[in-house]
UniProtKB/TrEMBL annotation:
Its cofactor is Mg(2+). It catalyses: 2 GTP = 3',3'-c-di-GMP + 2 diphosphate. CDD domains: GGDEF (cd01949). This is diguanylate cyclase. InterPro entries: Diguanylate_Cyclase, GGDEF_dom, Nucleotide_cyclase, Rev_trsase/Diguanyl_cyclase. It comes from Marinomonas pollencensis. PROSITE patterns: GGDEF. Gene3D superfamilies: 3.30.70.270. One of its GO terms (biological process) is cell adhesion involved in single-species biofilm formation.
Length: 260
């Protein structure tokens, strides 16, 4: 059965306030029960208030914790984005730096370091080429070009020769600037005969090249020393023999090829 507490309370209050029951023996007991009931309700209310404010406090705490967590998450995302961005820039700068370190800035050909790397690679045990030649190309009387026409024109001649040589060779032949007025040509898979005919083609093209600088026109030539890989060769010994052959070509009158 459902108890109607409001009606019950109203009944009790009516009895307690009615002077008719003032001397009734049950009135005092009812009065004390009523007092106890009120105290109980006060306690329940206090506990409820406490519990409500505790819940509020916990919710506030949760809210502020979650706001702080979100803020930290956003900061972390921002830092990650910045770090990713810097890593990309750093990677790009590294690869540009690597490129620069391996390229000759004047002719934009591979530099000596890069050519040494490529040549050393051919000396590794897993290299596929059974035959291999290198050619050392040196511009004849280059000092005279500098002396007569100036250093800038000397530079332009080196650039033009580098371009001409690169245009003549196929992709598997590598041309690099060895230093000063010297170029190195790596001829993988080519024997001395094949290398000689390719380098002869190059020598003739250079000899026939008319270089125009304003009203000045000049021609030049190159001397070339070729060496072919021999059993037991090292990078150094192969290059030294190409250098020796170049020296012979120079001493025989320049603008020619010598083999070793
Ligand atoms: N313009 C210019 N000149 C350079 C560069 N590198 C080296 N040289 C010059 O190249 C010249 C080389 O002179 P030499 O070694 O006497 O050679 P050469 O005059 O070609 O004589 P042979 O090789 O014997 O025919 C020097 O005058 C160097 O200053 C460069 O990057 N630019």
């Amino acid at each position: 059965m459902k108890i109607d507490f409001s009606a019950l309370e109203e009944d009790v209050v009516n009895i307690l306030e009615n002077p008719e029951y003032d001397n009734h023996p049950a009135r005092e007991v009812l009065g004390r029960l009523w007092e106890m009931n009120l105290n109980q309700w006060n306690r329940v209310e206090r506990i409820t208030r406490l519990s409500d404010s505790y819940q509020d406090m916990m919710m506030q705490r949760e809210k502020s914790l979650s706001a702080r967590f979100d803020k930290h998450l956003r900061q972390l995302e921002k830092i990650t984005r910045i770090s990713d961005h810097y890593q990309r820039i750093l990677k790009q700068m590294n690869s540009e730096l690597e490129q620069t370190a391996l390229m000759d800035p004047l002719t934009e050909l591979p530099n000596r370091r890069m050519m040494m790397k490529r040549l050393s690679h051919e000396f590794e045990p897993n290299s596929q080429h059974k035959v291999y030649c290198v050619a050392m190309v040196d511009v004849d009387h280059f000092k005279l070009i500098n002396d007569q026409h100036g250093h800038q024109i000397g530079d332009d001649v080196l650039v033009a020769l580098g371009q001409l040589m690169s245009n003549i060779v196929a992709e598997d032949v590598h041309i690099g600037r060895w230093g000063g007025e010297e170029f190195l040509v790596l001829l993988p898979g080519k024997d001395q005969g094949e290398s000689q005919s390719l380098m002869e083609q190059m020598r003739i093209a250079i000899e026939q090249l008319a270089l125009n600088f304003g009203d000045k026109q000049l021609t030049t030539s190159v001397s070339i020393g070729i060496s072919q890989y021999r059993q037991g060769d090292t990078v150094d010994s192969l290059l030294t023999r190409a250098d020796d052959a170049l020296y012979v070509a120079k001493s025989l009158g320049r603008n020619q090829i010598s083999l070793d």
